[in-house]
Please model this.
Amino acid sequence: MKTRKRSNAPIFWGLFGAGGMMAALFGPMLVFITGIAVPLGLLLPAGTMSYANMLAFAQNFIGKGFIFAVIFLFIWHAGHRIHHSLHEVGIHPGIVSKLLTYGLAAVVSLVAGVALLGLGF
Amino acid sequence: MSEQKIIEIEVLRYLPESDQAPHSEVYKVPFTDDMSVLQGVQYIKDNFDGSLTFRWSCRMAICGSCGMMINGIPKLSCETFIRDYYPQRISVEALAHFPIEKDLVVDLSGFIEKLEAIQPYIIPKEPRTVEEGEYIQTPAQFAEYIQYTSCINCVLCYAACPHTALSPDFIGPGAMALLHRYNMDSRDGGKAQRMELAASEDGVYNCSAVGYCSEVCPKKVDPGNAVNINKINAGMDYFLRFLSPKGGAK
Model:
């Protein structure tokens, strides 16, 4: 019988699944808060997303973790989805498609992590 | 009696001995409201061109032989009725994603190899002698897998799945549904062997959850669900195998 190699997809599929869950739970409300409510001054108190508030949020241990989780999981979710979509439009999985998608996700994660840590606690 | 109705059926013809590529031919077929597309194709063979080749057997959606692309959708031609298309022309082609042997007959050898690979039979945990009696199973254990036993190997799901076209070695929806059927059977002990296949590079992660396989399934097997449940199973095994005393699938 043909020998088959075990797929390492569970790592990427796991990140994809976690990112999808994260996007479904937080995505719409983040779009509403950052894209609609704050710019239009709806519902939320003035200065909700002021620099001081946001800096304090990003310096808090939980706030930092939340920001990193949102960026990290969203970008890996997107990377995996785009990797599969490229396959569907005829750009077959290979080193190029992986660098474009998973590579980009890794770079964005790294930049987000370094920037968040750089803000201090 | 009302006037005889005529339907145009456009059939994709391909005779490997003489044709460079498949081509279409249109036939004007008289029909009655109780006629299936299969009967329309049979009418063409009986009255216009005896060389037209297609598979069929039971005429009642249980043998799984007569799958065709009907207006681009994989369907069993025996349970698809001409009256539902009239007065539009019906196009009939060989199932997508398979090599054509002749006209509407496709080469299923790739699928048969996949079916063999998943070991679609019970591999007993402990073989029992006749004296020891039958394998006992509760209704709840039976309910775990009964849905997946309805598969008739008609391969409509393979013609629907974009990934079987992109990755020809992908085990695919139908065989995965049967893999799951045996894995879920309380009498079976072959799960570890089958999961090696599901977790491999030809396995479940080729699927991007399009779900069209389940939509076209004439027996409501839901092969898409079987594939996606096993993404979770193979994923758990991938991360937890180091904790498992047997080391998980290889």
About this structure: The mean pLDDT of chain B is 94. Residues 109-240 of chain B form a domain with the Fumarate Reductase Iron-sulfur Protein; Chain B, domain 2 fold (CATH 1.10.1060.10). Chain B has two domains: 5-106, 109-240. The longest strand of chain B covers residues 5-13.
